Amino acid sequence: MAALLQVSGLHASYGPTRVLHGIDFAMDEGTITTLLGANGAGKTTTLRALCGMVKTQGEVKFDGERIDGKPTENIVRKGIAHVPDGRGTFVNVTTEENLRLGAYTRKDRHAVESDLERVYGYFPRLKERREQQAGTLSGGEQQMLAVSRALMLRPRLMLLDEPSFGLAPLIVQELFEILRTVNEKEKVSMLVVEQNAAMALELADHAYVIETGRVVLSGTAAEIKSNDAVRRSYLGY
Amino acid sequence: MDEFLRQVLAGLATGGIYASLALALVMIYQATHLVNFAQGELAMFATYFAWSLIDAGVPYWPAFLLTVAFAFVLGVLIERVIIRPVENAPVLAVVVVFIALLVILNSVAGWIYSYTIKTFPSPFPEEPIFGQYITSHEGGAIGVTMVVLLLLYLFFRFTPLGLAMRAAAQNPDSARLVGIRVGWMLALGWGLAAAVGGVAGMMVAPIVFLDPNMMGGVLLYAFAAALVGGIDNPAGAVFGGFLVGVLENLLGAFVIGNELKLAVALVLIIGVLVVKPSGFFGKVLVTRV
Questions:
Q1: A87, B13, B66, B163: which sits with the fewest CB atoms below 10 Å from its CB?
Q2: Burial of B185 (0-12, 13-18, 19+ CB in 10 A)
Q3: A72, A83, A87, A131: which to substitute to probe chain B, counting the most B Cβ within 10 Å?
Q4: Chain B residues 122-161 within an 8 A CB cutoff of chain A
Q5: What is the pLDDT of residues B246-277, one digit of tens each?
Q6: What ipTM does the predicted assembly reach?
């Protein structure tokens, strides 16, 4: 079976500053893969590169089709939902309007209505706040909203950038459990970038370790977890 | 007292026109954070288009609708062809493009239609139909403005496309991430703003007469209105439009005389910028440097 996402020799730069120096990785449909690495290693840039938000060189194939160099909105329309760094909330519209924007490209109106109820099922808090301006939600609620907005696309692949960032530990637990449920029940593949390596390895099937724009280590989550170097640098014991 | 009431109502009529044009300015400002100085000339150009149609024998209301469509297409085309290439240019470069557009539209209109002042018909009858205090055209203009404002409100508030346009203006990066074609939303915004401006032009032309410079003063009042209401707040701009219209008329009639009316707009612009740059309803923008 061909990989759902196949990245080879991915380079990216912001102006003259090169951030990615030829990243290679692949992931299969239905799996959760995590990218680990320190601040500035290029994790966020990798996700942004996959969505065409930065200039790139190299090849990105989604479901066998080249998507590198395509405009972001076309990549999204192929079923890739990005939960961005900083959550990307539309702050001046309501919670529910944020969710409807997530389904903007879909034509199946009825299914959108039932998906709305489905994500409210995952995050009842959002239902309570459906008419509230999204900018007034708490950080945790905005993260739930960002994940829910991505789910409204009915994506095949979700890119999650630091979903645990700035959240209380209990909320992180809750969020990761929901991500696992979504992955198992709805067969949504996920590529997760995390600082919280322990949580990420708990969730993921596969892991890649990135250092200064290159993949330095890869394997199943269990292998990576038991790797001495990873344990010392990222897990801290 | 009668005269006072008359002036207030007349002020509301021109105020509605300022409100429409102010709203057009705000729509572009929200998406680009720039004031489109050519907004008035776009409206003037559309009004000339309406004049040609009516001159050629097209009845008023069909000509009105065709003009709205023409202004919309003109707005979209200008965004796609002229504004898009300077999308990421420095602010001053874009401002220069706006001013160039202003001058070009003004000259082209003068070249095609000459600078002689023309009368522009009103669709409303000569004899007063809304009572003794207000002419039919003034009453009708208020009505038309209200319909336009209501349609825009309904569009932005309740349609998926309106929501997508608001999203694209607010947060272009996130908008792309949900699949919205942000570039097209900007072009649509230009089209809508030009269409609204076109209506304002057709409503003001019977009052100020049609000539290539007719929108100069109107744009100043509209700019004052947008600033008074808060340049990033559509409802504020509409309120500001009506306020400026009434204020201009009352001050003109009772305090400073007609000759100094335009100065009211300038005083308002400077006053707001000095005392409360965010306007009555605008958000205070804090930028970290």
A1: B66
A2: buried
A3: A72
A4: 160
A5: 998 888 878 887 777 788 888 888 888 888 87
A6: 0.90
